[in-house]
């Protein structure tokens, strides 16, 4: 694949490099923010060789490339020179709320969560590896090797607000280091300990409350706090004289934001997070079967429309508060179901190019990347996609009924099976085998 040519065509068809406001990428997509959407030709971009699909969601023009998206990203950066542009100059239009509410929320969540996914995936895979080594007796929980390596996972997920703060500061266009300082204060062991033992139970007479486990696994408290930090920063930059701005602004920002964070945002958002997590758990307790069927069957539909990021924080909340994420177990088989459909297309097709693309796309689903199979194969032929949804709903219902759950963060692929050890693990494995096997059995019979 000539990625220089692909980059040239993509940039040309989206209105040229001057029409690009920003560019990021995730596991499979180039995510453009365009200055003028009307200059982009969606149909032309979708016809470019190497482009799987084009999705518009959350204010982004997303070009689905597949597993080699990094090469395409590097080629676009080399062509446009967009990497490294200043982000501290805030345009007025950037601060205005644009588009529908759902688009705004999706854009916010994806822009903050996408950059930290490598760390979450890396930590999750380390956790999976350690659980395998513990099971086979290679390591013991008391061994130095286990303790050191396990701390990688613990550090990533215990200090999650620090990662989120940096990305949120980038999104809200405020000072990243002050946002990190804010997050480090939030997860400070000293504050958690002193609040618990009553030493610092109040601030200027106002009660301080910290969750039992602290804010280490929190998602929304730090995001809202960084947003407030950005508001204070813009106010200070506007009203403080430039000669005093460099030393007064950081102090004022932190002195104002930290107490507000602990007294207002932290407790308020923690209550809401608990309500969301408890609501999902209540729904699952009321009807695990129905919950699994709905979430499992609709998950890949949400992925297609880019809506799945709205559910990711719920899983993170449940994992942080309860140590179990049933969402991960319910949606996991849907990836292999899409992979099974793509492999079924590879078996049935007589076109060498289709067979090759469908086969490689199907295999990537084993490693928790389903978008090449969904966009490149199944949606194109529709029926394979619908069959995979049905199988995903059945598997999700069974996983929900069997109370299968993820006990560590990370992608839901073949190497992360140890993250599902515990109650419902056998059911989870059965569903993972059931989804692709059922689809392949059907397609193999028709192919023969």
TrEMBL record:
It is found in: Cell membrane. The keyword Kinase applies. InterPro entries: Glu_permease_IIB, PTrfase_EIIB_Cys, PTS_EIIC, PTS_EIIC_1, PTS_IIB_1, PTS_Sugar-Specific_Components. One of its GO terms (biological process) is phosphoenolpyruvate-dependent sugar phosphotransferase system. The chain crosses the membrane at residues 104-133, 145-166, 178-195, 215-235, 247-269, 289-312, 383-405, 417-441. Its main location: membrane. It is a multi-pass membrane protein. Residues 4-86 form the PTS EIIB type-1 domain. Residues 107-448 form the PTS EIIC type-1 domain. One of its GO terms (molecular function) is protein-phosphocysteine-trehalose phosphotransferase system transporter activity. It holds the Pfam family PTS_EIIC. This is PTS system, glucose-like IIB component. It comes from Atopobium minutum 10063974.
